[in-house]
Specification:
Number of domains: 1
Distance between the termini: 36 Å
Radius of gyration: 16 Å
CATH class: Alpha Beta
Helix content: 25-40%
Order of helices and strands: HEEHHEHEEEHEHE
Number of helices: 6
Strand content: 25-35%
Length: 184
């Protein structure tokens, strides 16, 4: 069972830092969420997997994954817990660039064209990384069912997804840490 308060405490303890930062989106921020310190932590991985599986409920996609490298530990945690429960949820990885060797794939894993997928992300600011992942996954023939993030910074990501017809679900938002979102 998902324990939201335990995840909030773990993120606060291991991943939330205050200072002057430049985010992947290019935006400046007074705080940083280094979610890899939580997604690669055994307790964090379990909490995140439990939370995502709870959000998915009985409406499981064929596979779950997202843009390397942030989504990789999330994907691994979710498919591991799903496997322990006997759920047929597979994972995939979206490369930032297609491989120059082998089969030259940009989307890797046991998935096929026509299957339904959910995109996962650690932290959403503007949604740019996940929107790129969606573009690559759809180009490979998959159907994106939803986007799930650990934390929404509440800086336009949900609106960017909605504008493209996708729904963003999150385990947490910056408000769970008493932080008001930055005004763009």
């Amino acid at each position: 069972m998902y324990d939201k308060h335990a995840l909030i405490d773990l993120v606060r303890q291991k991943a939330l830092e205050f200072g002057d930062f430049t985010l992947a989106s290019g935006k400046k921020a007074s705080f940083y969420l280094d979610c890899r310190k939580v997604t690669l932590d055994p307790q964090g991985a379990n909490l995140i997997a439990e939370g995502i599986l709870e959000l998915l409920g009985d409406d499981l996609p064929d596979a779950i994954g997202g843009m390397a490298i942030g989504a990789d530990p999330i994907t691994a945690a979710v498919v591991t817990v799903a496997g322990q429960r006997g759920l047929p949820l597979r994972g995939f990885i979206v490369r930032k660039e297609a491989k120059a060797h082998g089969k030259g794939r940009q989307v890797e894993g046991p998935i096929e064209s026509g299957e339904s997928v959910v995109i996962v992300e650690d932290t959403v600011t503007t949604g740019g990384s996940s929107l790129k992942a969606i573009e690559y996954v759809e180009a490979a023939g998959m159907k994106v069912q939803a986007v799930i993030a650990i934390i929404d910074r509440l800086e336009g990501g949900a609106e960017a997804f909605a504008a493209k017809g996708y729904h963003l679900q999150t385990l947490l938002t910056v408000k769970d840490f008493g932080i008001e979102p930055a005004v763009s």
